[in-house]
Write a structure and sequence with these properties.
seven-stranded antiparallel β-sheet; 6 helices; Pdz3 Domain; 384 residues; 2 domains; Thrombin, subunit H; mainly beta
């Protein structure tokens, strides 16, 4: 997708925060397995019935909208901003609005990392217009998910479905707070599955694409099937102007379950890693002959690959496999690694303790070794 034609943008904030920004996530929310309200083995079904075929216009999504709407909330973030004539004072002001999904009657809400990360205050507004300050339990930059909690009673959690049976063409509803219009419902279909989007440092993996209208403020809101079951968390849009053009993306709910469960249990999401340190800005640098010449000098070897990940440090897993600083990771389990996004795609399905075959350049030689993946996690900054 050419960035001069269309961009993947954040859709979290209203006003100036809804301005077009390439290479950012949009959305908020996640969920946690111990607290999820799920249908038992309920599949994802198309909006159909047993009888003669009817035109799409005859389908009624009233029941689904009524079911999920009480579970979708508005999430307002506050930050400290300079005020005063000389900007020498600080005031805490509302700086953006996104959406969230209630996943537990204990007050657990899933939202996007970019909605609440590093916020000075997070406030949740419910469907009945009541509002509560929220505690950030944990955030995960890699998945762009976060879990927050409010001290409210009589909450209605969303019914959690599954994303494994989602099919292209099935009806979906997007529910959130676009442009500050609380509890807005839009209807569309699943346009595509397993979209991999090179957004930010880690990218979005296996996203659900939909043409249901998603706009700034929908971030972290619900993507549901025609039965009102949650199948994804809305997270990004492709747009040339920052608004909806019918190309939106959601984080699949099955991945949301894993991430949120980890956050609730441990305060962070667990991932499997090679045990290497690297810099994202070096991903494309290897294409520069001058840069490769510097790497060759540091690694004491020639024929440095033009693509891959330049290793800048190693941990136990990589070190035990013989990977060293200034080596270049070229492939993992036979899948070519052009940069950080490709590595993330390969490792997302893996678990700590799994083994992978890593092909890497080492001092002028191509080497393939088995690496036992170690547990890693992203640092979080919960509110006090």
């Amino acid at each position: 997708m050419r960035k001069n034609i269309v961009a993947i943008v954040m859709a979290t904030f209203v006003g100036v925060f809804g301005a077009l920004q390439a290479d950012h996530f949009m959305g908020q929310h996640s969920e946690s397995i111990p607290f999820l309200h799920s249908s038992s083995d309920a599949g994802i079904f198309n909006a159909s019935y047993n009888g003669p075929t009817l035109p799409a216009a005859t389908f009624d999504f009233t029941a689904a909208a009524k079911k999920v709407s009480p579970s979708v909330v508005s999430v307002d973030r506050y930050d400290d901003v300079p005020v005063g004539f000389f900007g020498d004072q600080v005031a805490r002001q509302e700086s953006g609005t996104g959406s969230g999904v209630i996943i537990s009657d204990s007050g657990y809400i899933v939202t996007n990392n970019h909605v609440v990360a590093d916020a000075k205050r997070v406030r949740v507004r419910l469907n009945d217009n009541s509002a509560y300050d929220a505690k950030v339990l944990g955030t995960d930059p890699r998945s762009d998910l976060a879990v927050i909690q409010i001290p409210a009673k009589n909450l209605q959690p969303a019914e959690i479905g599954t994303s494994k049976n989602v099919q292209v063409g099935q009806w979906v509803l997007a529910v959130g707070n676009p442009l500050g219009f609380d509890n807005t419902v839009s209807v569309g279909v699943v346009s595509s599955m397993k979209r991999n989007l090179p957004i930010g440092d880690q990218g979005m993996v296996d996203a659900i694409q939909t043409d249901a209208a998603i706009n700034p403020g929908n971030s972290g809101g619900a993507l549901c099937n025609s039965q009102g079951q949650l199948i994804g968390i809305n997270a990004a849009i492709a747009s040339g102007n920052g608004g909806s053009v019918g190309i939106g993306f959601a984080i699949p709910v099955d991945r949301v379950k894993e991430v949120v469960s980890d956050i609730v249990k441990y305060g962070y999401a667990k991932y499997a890693g090679l045990g290497i340190g690297h810099q994202v800005n070096y991903d494309q640098a290897l294409a520069d002959p001058d840069f490769r010449a510097q790497v060759a000098q540091q690694a004491n070897g020639q024929d440095v690959p033009e693509h891959g990940i330049l290793v800048m440090s190693t941990d136990n897993a990589a070190a035990q496999a013989g990977i060293r600083k200034f080596d270049v990771i070229e492939a993992v389990d036979g899948q070519a690694i052009q940069g950080s996004f490709d590595l993330n795609k390969v490792l997302i399905p893996k678990k700590p303790g799994d083994s992978v075959n890593v092909k890497f350049w080492h001092s002028g030689k191509e080497v393939t070794k088995s690496v036992v993946l170690e547990e890693i996690h992203e640092a979080t900054q919960p509110l006090p």
